[in-house]
Amino acid sequence: MKNTLRQVFHSPKFVIGFGLFMIILLTSIIYPLINPGDPLLMIGLGSFKKPGTYVSLYDAVGTDTSTFKLPDADAKRLGQVLTDEDRVSMVNWFSAMDIDISGLDISDTDQLLSMWKEHYDEAAKPAGMTKAQRNYYKRLNNAILSANTAEALTVTAPGESGEPEERATIKTTDYVEVGDVANIITLPLGTDNFGRDVLKELVSAIGTSLKIGFIAGCIATFIGLLLGLLSGYVGGLVDDIVMFITNIFTVIPSFVLLILINYSIGQENRGATVVAVVIGLTSWTWTTRSVRSQVISLRNRDHVNLSKLSGHSLLRIVLTDILPYIASYVVMAFILQISSAILSEAQLSLLGLGPKTTEVPTLGLMMNWAMLYSAHLGGYWWAYFPVISIIALISFSLNLMNTGLDQVFNPTLRD
After folding, report:
1. Backbone angles phi and psi of 409, in degrees to 5
2. Which of 180, 219, 344, 404 is deepest in the core (most CB within 10 A)?
């Protein structure tokens, strides 16, 4: 046993795959202890907030301020006022007024504003421009002037008499230390369409998907191993019956069978465990056929015949003389079953037939939510790209482990 483990952990492919998988597994276990809470809690009002650190403006007003005069602060403030759409609109105004814009770089805020101040005329009426468009340019010009000239903002609140009273004045040179603000939240992966923390949701989804993969893998491997051992060793009528059932399940595409069963169960009854059991009950056929072929090659070996002549029971012969010789193959089949189950759950969830959405997130459900709310069209990469990456990493790590084991236990693949 020690020699076998030594060989396994000397396989570079197995070690890399095992390392990746353990990092993902430990993250799903440790992170919820560091950052506890409901992963489906809606903390944001609005969908798809981009990754970053968010500071409460309400609390920041009452925080002690420090004064800093940064040389490029005004330019950055103006750059934030001007959106890409505003910049294009300014160029359109120049064109409508027949102003030469050759050499103008709209990403250069200083150059664009300098040209705007020089040529913009509120009273001008460019040909073909509607009154609504001219009003838009007036508002844009006022916003630029305000950003240029404003020295401070005044914060007011209703007083005892109901009239607004000044509570604080915020100067352009006032800054607060983020650590001094009472309420701060860091969202490394932003929020999803429901305003939920994507990172917390993703870690929880990893744990749930791994659970589904493990349960489904155990069920599929157990059924496949049991039927494969029985069919391969006993043979005869038992072999014919087992292979007849196996062939029926092989002819019917397993994914179509998954869709039909999950649809018939109903949304309210489809928990993560139920989906895992259904996947396991429909994924055992190839394991059965593979184990059967391995057992057939072993059942007439000398050590097996010796056990038969010694009067050992069928159970003992299978457990002591056959199973140890195919144990490595069973482990590899189990690893592949886990990977296959995780992918099957993701496919089902994309079709809306995965676990119910009110209990726990899964990787497939996160992909389904991102697709339904067009995250890929809106450029909200944080809602779907990390999920795709994790699914790919889990599958890659498990298949790499399987390849490493195959090289260790299959003599024809050894260097």
Report:
1. -95, -10
2. 344
